[in-house]
Design brief:
CATH class of the largest domain in chain A: Alpha Beta
Number of strands of chain A: 13
Structural class of chain A: alpha+beta
Number of domains of chain A: 2
Largest interface: A-B, 92 and 92 residues
Number of helices of chain A: 5
Radius of gyration of chain A: 23 Å
Oligomer: homotetramer
Helix content of chain A: 10-25%
Chain lengths: ~300, ~300, ~300, ~300
């Protein structure tokens, strides 16, 4: 039996494009990292190095810059859809294209309550990052477009209202039960749209608020339970979302042992550990969610 | 229709364990980062925070340390298999377990040709990292165990013998063709074993050598072609390997423009760029490869 | 002539301590990375390994945790002063101690205009980091305590109002002059207090605001000029500050060349480069600033 | 009293230049990160933005590329000296220039004992990095040139032959004494040449070997003692070196507590911790070392 080419894809990763809207003296800034991925008939390139079907990744990069100028990047989901459709429609060998975007937020300098802030000076917000990953292409069920948006690096912490007890214990279990610990995570959440949002940015902001409010408002018996509550709240509030997935590292905060120094430590002083960390992954989905198609297809390894 | 729990898993990530073999004055060192992931019936934890089925990630960490003492970690694939089987066999709720390991290599201090080096002093090699990801559990076709091993951060470069031309050009294409460029990548390769290797470490070393030799020996018309040649060579030389997958960032080296200074630059002085970078992913597989089962199941997002 | 011990110091780096103030149901959080450094008579440890004078770095870590409990960490400058004085006063061999702190800010979840936010749920702000480095000890002029506070990772950008022209050109100069470019930096600023601030946190907030406002309000002919303006404004507004030092990487944003695609690009679409970057360092100081003493003594290499 | 400009400097950081020597079919590769820093009379740029004295950092970058072509980069110390002298001699406002270089080593693919390896295919060694920082300019004592070379990221470990006991204990000391622990560090060493080396690369290789051999061969009662022994051995073996400075993080390896599982752990299984870490800095110097001049002047903050 032979040795053959299997699944493959290629593209340009981490294209750092900054677009300034400057039609008026009051500028807006869009700061993105864009990654393009193309799939299709590139077998000749793999087999013999024949590149006749291969659009250079350099051209993909150029396309991102040109589209930023021509169409703007107001809504990253629309920008990604435009790019993905362009590659599918204009590169003959391409059967599907995926465009991922990380968007970094900036605030205007000098924004006080009731003030408008500076026209063209900005300070990077540096908090969580807004993401999207759009796939356009054909499956066995026909053509489609799938939008997964999300948030990453959302670092949240509760200083009380979290327990951890009643767990399964085996002979390697030494952990003490607790009814009051710090719960902290650097959340990654990705939600798949079942239908387009009327306003992607507003939808993102709404989901972010629901995530934060539910994290804060849920008395936690397990990080799993908190994630389930967060996902359920998002799906209830946002009918356009079919499914949400979480990856939540449990950022352990261990109470410092101050007893040798004659001090008690009732949940006040903690050592924030780096590694290892618990990692909880979970999905909350509608029973009648449409087929995910190519929505979640990312890297091969 | 309801909102339900979908796919989920949890475990302990990046457990940094160092095991010293010191039965004789000539020590050996094993330096690992281990990640455990469990899947199974954890619905109660998600729905209500009931942890009765949940083995704490702290216990998983303890298990790794205890197994390192009891069984040693001579072959990371065997160590991962032992751990994964243990979780499946002893934690009632677990239906499958995945154990990933990164292994960092150390050399003995003072190794000259023909010398044995120091007994207990080591210098970290710091080159590429040996990896494995083992999954044990049940699919619809019955129970199984799958071993994927690999290499990452293998940074290789050819200073000639690489062209890039004859590619598909669209209206956004400005890249010039070249018949002599630098080809460089930081390779990630993961191969799935169709059957156990007689000696995992020897097999890893053999595959690494084949990858390097083929990279060096292939006149490259495309990075895709080079990867295909590398994968094919591995499968030809190693019948125990069913499939190999690559992720290869094209680490661009752009020739510096020295013309303004009256200097030519025939492939001598380059600027090594960070971002963006091309990213090529490819699979080389046997036509009669056994079903991959749970081999490639990693994160959910 | 002999070979002797020269300058030396030691301590514990990056102690990650989180202190929760929980005297009332409305918690406060203090999230720090503390580094201690001791100098003094440790020659015996270097010469023969005799540790009789050496307070273990583990004890230094314990001290940080115990002090967090006993005294709180409300003002990082005071916390650092307390720790540094403690080491100088209680460890006989120590002649001076330096305590550096990075403080990570958290916001309450659910803070809308006019609202108070959640009592014990927080989201990490993730923007710039507040820093301090306090040194207590003796110089040839007698004992003293020096406080340097600062800010790092303050990423700011102006989308217009920045030129770069009239520079010195040699035979390697190819850069075109421009009267409208993006000016962006990830600012590090460190200011030395000539006298203690009445309220360190308020002073930090005030200086941060002055830095931002001056960055925004200065038409820039050079990053150097902008830094000088920022430093001068800080010293004018804050008589307690004797000196301020800046390290400002010039985060280059290059206008994308869209001409090949029939598009102009009047300051709209930029490529944000990683490396190399310009790096401007500058000091603004009062002519009558008191002697800096040990204020700026950090690492040896 | 006025507010004035204090110490200042500027330059281009992290210029990533790769130089291929290809005069014969057997290529050589030089892979560098170069940072230039200029000091002198740039007050006008700070005060008013007048750049007439300022050589753009872009031109500095161009110079590095052009010099790499014209003169090669065989010895990084000589390359840095050439660059620094060029800036001092050709830019009127410059009074001193500092050029720092990190050099990344590559091995030829296919080097077996007795073999020569591939002509133009390389694999990055990835171990420790060779460094230099050269300063050329005038002090109050006249003009000079100073060469500091070094090594960084040299990760070494001893699995026995290291104790830690007899230390000063205060009321915050809980650490147990030990007569057998793992000693590990990621060494940074920088040595100042009192006179030029006949062969910089050979000298670097010789010093690296002395550092490793001494680390391995010294029974350690303290990391301080080990550093002192390493530094002394370097100065004894290399008369051209006037002084050597170390920064050595104590990479803690804590023995895993396996007692709850009925297992002993006599120095076999360790948890490799990330933070916090001890940090030892030390200098070993000749009593008659020449004045250091500008050798150690680096950043301002």
């Amino acid at each position: 039996m032979g040795i053959i080419l299997g699944a493959n894809q290629y593209g340009k990763a981490e294209i750092r494009v900054v677009k300034i809207d400057r039609d008026t003296p009051r500028h807006d800034i869009h700061d993105l990292s864009v990654t393009t991925t193309l799939r299709g008939d590139f077998a000749a390139a793999h087999r013999s190095g024949n590149q006749a079907n291969v659009l250079p990744t350099d051209s993909q990069k150029n396309t991102v810059f040109a589209f930023a100028k021509q169409y703007g990047v107001d809504q990253i989901e629309d920008f990604a859809l435009d790019l993905a459709r362009h590659f599918v429609e204009t590169v003959p060998a391409v059967t599907s294209a995926r465009v991922g975007i990380d968007a970094y937020a900036w605030d205007r300098v000098g924004v006080a309550p009731g003030e408008a802030g500076h026209d063209h000076a900005f300070v990077r917000r540096g908090q969580d990052i807004r993401t999207t990953a759009v796939t356009v292409g054909a499956t066995e069920h026909g053509p489609g477009a799938w939008v997964v948006s999300g948030i990453k690096d959302l670092v949240v912490l509760k200083s009380t209202g979290s327990e951890f007890r009643g767990f399964f214990a085996d002979r390697f279990t030494t952990l003490a039960e607790t009814d009051d610990r710090i719960l902290a995570t650097s959340l990654v959440a990705s939600w798949r749209y079942g239908e387009p949002a009327a306003d992607w940015a507003a939808c993102h902001a709404g989901i972010r608020a629901v995530l934060l409010d539910t994290f804060a408002g849920t008395h936690s018996r397990a990080l799993q339970q908190t994630l389930q509550a967060m996902g359920t709240a998002v799906l209830k509030a946002h009918p356009e979302v079919a499914e949400i997935r979480f990856a939540a590292p449990n950022k352990h905060h261990f109470a410092a042992d101050l007893e040798p120094f004659g001090l008690d430590n009732p949940g006040e002083v903690f050592y924030a550990a780096d590694r290892p960390y618990g990692l909880i992954e979970a999905t909350v989905i509608r029973e009648d969610a449409p087929d995910a198609g190519l929505a979640w297809s990312a890297g091969l390894t």
